[in-house]
Structure formats: C-alpha cells, structure tokens
DNA sequence: TTGATTTGACCAGT
DNA sequence: ACTGGTCAAATCAA
C-alpha cells in the first residue's frame, strides 16, 4: 500500500492532460478539415481524425481511472483464498464444478461510464455473460478483453437504456494492459443512408455486426456521442479515507456543449453542425484546467 | 476443429 | 431473500 507517490499520481494526471490536449488539437484539425469543401480535402480523412479524438479521450480516461486502482491495493485480493476450503458437497447440478469462492465480486473502483448509440469502441471484446436487470427492459451484457489470457483485465458491461432512442450505457472496468490498438479490427466508417452527416463507428467483423442484432438496433447508425463520463475520484486528500466517492463529470462540463455532439461526416456540412463543432473546440480550451476538477 | 456466444447455475454483496 | 456478476457446459458459426 501507499506505493503510489504523489509524483507518480501527478505524472499520470499529466499524461491524461497531454492526451486531452492532443485530442483538442486533433479536434481543431478536424474543424479545419470540415471547413474545406469535400473535394478539396487532403489525404487526411475526417473519420480518421474523429477516431483519434475518441482514442485520446478514451486513453486519458484510462489514465485517470488507473489512479484509483493504484490507491486501492489488493481490492480484489483476500477472499479467493477461501476457494479451496473443503466444505463441498452441497447443491450441485449437471456435474458442475464447485465454484464457490472461485471469483471475487469486483468493487466499483477503476471504472467509468459512457453513453453511446453504439456498443462498439474499437476494442476486441469477448462476451462472457448476459443478465436481465431488474427494472430494465433490456438485458445487460458482460464483456472481457479478448486478450485476457495475456493478462489484460479490461472488462465492460453494456446495457441498452430504456427509451425511444437506441443508446447504450457502457461501464468500463480496468484499463487495457494488452496491446489492443494493434489488434483491434480496422475502423470502418460508413455513411448513414438516412443522415450522411453522421459518422458511423463499426468494425468490419460480421460476427460483431450480428451481435448487434440481439439488441435490435440499427447497426448502421452509430454517430460519435458521449453524454457523460463517470470517473472515480482520483485524488484524495485523506489517503486513509476508505469511503471512496465518485463524481459525475457530464460531457457538458468537458465540452461546454449542452447537447449531443454529432460529428459531421461527408457531403455538405450544415452550418449548424459546424457551429456546434466551433463551440466544442472553443470550450475544450478549458481542458487545461481539467485537473482542478479532481 | 476451433473459437465465440448463449444460457442456466453458482456465488457474493446488501 | 433478492439482485447482479461470473463461470462453464452446451451450442453455434466460421
């Protein structure tokens, strides 16, 4: 315990800041690009820039959330030792192994939440469970990183939110330790036949496309939108304080936008959309003060 | 044949 | 007791 020095903590926060600022710079590039007529645009694609922005934010979130995991030493340790205790011989069906104590219920540490119209995030996930959730019309799906065998502990839970719009709340647990960026399937950006101004994030893996079907959503419509980001409190003045609090950081607080951000894609760029991006980029200048929030 | 998904059971936390 | 998270056998798909 206590191996995380202040210097280390600040280094991670600094890394997160660097990534956020990088995302901002890419957003400026995207803004500039979108101001050009489609025919005059260079080799740099808007979808590539949008993906880089997404990854910058995703990486910075991982960086920030990892602060918390370091502050909770062995949060998952302990009780697993009781797994081998010999009081077997209770209810067993279909010859199932005794799994008592074989897993630990995770704490809510090192987690963050996003709300997307898509469950895709360009990481390679493997589904390991699905559960009907009390009070929800839709089941919750459980995914772990495909490269768990190599030690990556990243998990995510995806649940469709009740409502007319197809929105998925994704809770991420632990950050990727695998080299997932080299392995993730290539990003395929497809225009939406209904609204060509929307960027569609999806993989080229047809099986993953099929997986969307069980949720009954239209897999072709996946515009980039993050409604809120939930981060664990990264800095605690009182390290002995066991009660960790979380704080909700609305997307609005980061971007200054009070509406969903829809990234224009191809064809004519509507002035309203461009104006929205103007606001986003301008408000992102506040990112420099981001660390004061935590 | 192999890897991914489905699904019911098991288990932990409240 | 209830709810949600995980496991693992069965099943599916490439």
Short description:
This protein is α+β, with helices and mostly antiparallel strands and 294 residues long. The protein has helices at 6-35, 46-71, 180-183, 206-213, 251-255, 271-283; strands at residues 111-116, 125-131, 140-145, 155-160, 168-173, 187-191, 199-203, 228-232, 246-250. Helices cover 29% and strands 17% of the residues.
Show the helix and strand layout:
Blueprint: H1 6-35, H2 46-71, E1 111-116, E2 125-131, E3 140-145, E4 155-160, E5 168-173, H3 180-183, E6 187-191, E7 199-203, H4 206-213, E8 228-232, E9 246-250, H5 251-255, H6 271-283
Helix pairs in contact: 1-2, 1-6
The structure holds a DNA duplex (14 and 14 nucleotides).
Explain this structure.
The chain is α+β, with helices and mostly antiparallel strands and 294 residues long. Helices cover 29% and strands 17% of the residues. It contains six helices and nine strands; from the N terminus they run ααβββββαββαββαα. The protein has a five-stranded antiparallel beta sheet with strand order 1-5-4-3-2, with no helix packed on it. A two-stranded antiparallel ribbon has the order 6-7. A two-stranded antiparallel sheet has the order 8-9. A hairpin with a 7-residue loop joins β6 (187-191) and β7. α1 (6-35) packs antiparallel against α2 (46-71) and α1 packs antiparallel against α6 (271-283). The model is unreliable at 68-96 and 180-294 (pLDDT under 50). The protein binds a DNA duplex (14 and 14 nucleotides) through β2 and α4.
């Amino acid at each position: 315990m206590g191996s995380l020095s202040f210097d280390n903590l600040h280094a991670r926060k600094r890394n997160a800041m660097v990534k956020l600022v990088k995302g901002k710079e890419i957003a400026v590039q995207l803004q500039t690009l979108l101001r050009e007529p489609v025919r005059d645009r260079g080799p740099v694609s808007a979808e590539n820039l949008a993906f880089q922005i997404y990854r910058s934010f995703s990486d910075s979130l991982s960086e920030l959330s990892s602060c918390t995991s370091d502050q909770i030493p062995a949060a998952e340790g302990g009780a697993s030792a009781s797994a081998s205790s010999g009081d077997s011989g209770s209810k067993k069906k279909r010859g199932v192994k005794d799994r008592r104590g074989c897993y630990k219920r995770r704490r809510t540490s090192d987690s963050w939440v996003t709300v997307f119209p898509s469950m895709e995030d360009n990481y390679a996930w493997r589904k390991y469970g699905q559960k009907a959730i009390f009070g929800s019309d839709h089941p919750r799906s459980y995914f772990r990183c495909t490269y768990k065998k190599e030690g990556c502990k990243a998990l995510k839970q995806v649940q469709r939110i009740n409502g007319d719009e197809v929105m998925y709340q994704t809770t991420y647990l632990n950050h990727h330790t695998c080299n997932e960026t080299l392995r993730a399937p290539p990003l395929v950006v497809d225009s939406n036949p209904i609204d060509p101004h929307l960027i569609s994030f999806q993989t080229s893996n047809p099986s993953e496309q099929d997986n969307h079907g069980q949720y009954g959503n239209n897999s072709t419509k996946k515009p980039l939108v993050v409604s809120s980001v939930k981060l664990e409190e990264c800095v605690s003045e009182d390290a002995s304080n066991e009660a960790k609090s979380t704080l909700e950081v609305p997307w609005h607080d980061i971007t200054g936008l009070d509406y969903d951000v829809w990234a224009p894609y191809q064809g004519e760029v509507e002035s309203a959309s461009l104006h929205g991006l103007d606001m986003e980029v301008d408000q992102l200048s506040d990112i420099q003060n981001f660390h004061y929030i935590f």
